[in-house]
Amino acid sequence: MNRASTRSKEKEATHERIVEAAARAIRRSGYDGASVADIMKEAGLTHGGFYAHFSSREAMLAEAADRAGAEAVASSTRVAAAAPPEQELRWLLRAYLSDEHLKNAELGCPVAALGSEMPRQAPEVRRAATHRIKEMIDVIARQSPDWGQPGAHEHALVTAATMVGALLMARAVDDPSLSDALLKAALKHLAPVYD
Questions:
Q1: Suppose 110 and one of 68, 129, 184, 188 were both cysteines; which one would form an S-S bond, judging by CB atoms 3.0 to 4.6 Å apart?
Q2: 148-155: long-range contacts (C-beta < 8 A, 24 or more apart)?
Q3: What pLDDT score does 46 carry?
Q4: What pLDDT was estimated at residue 194?
Q5: How far is CA 43 from the centre of its chain?
Q6: Which CATH superfamily is domain 56-193 in?
Q7: Where exactly are the structural domains of the chain?
Q8: How many other CB atoms are there within 10 angstroms of residue 148's CB atom?
Q9: How open is the CA angle 138-170-88, to the nearest 5 degrees?
Q10: pLDDT digit string (tens) for 97-139?
């Protein structure tokens, strides 16, 4: 392998480390709480190397939003694929509305972690998030027993909104019993809709 090819691969790997760190950071600290300096430090790099990889902070945030969304969609797809036949949506709901997901915002759904911040983000960040939200809705729709029927997409929209809203509220409150009740109520309400 020649030097230019090696440098290109190293730069690509470094870029990926930065995007991974940024995807975790935005879910953990929000868009405004994720500073370039902190993200670069988490990626094991100095702040000075940032502009060798991104034209702006917004460009990095757009890639981070896309990565976080892609990870969430991939996770949901894996959960559904592991479920027994006709249990895919139930398993997806249980995983999303779980205590584990509640406590791991850094690795979980970016919509629940960042949804209230989205209207104030740059267009490229919102575009990336919107693309992944549409994918999330599609994953839910494809797991639904009524997939392909009239109203299936609308059911998926309501299901996604309820899942995200329940998780967001469960994370927002400082009362563990209320947090748990929010997740359980959403699961109880959503699961029978598809039975």
A1: 68
A2: 155/193, 155/194
A3: 84
A4: 53
A5: 20
A6: Tetracycline Repressor, domain 2 (1.10.357.10)
A7: 56-193
A8: 9
A9: 35
A10: 999 999 999 999 999 999 899 999 999 999 999 999 999 999 9
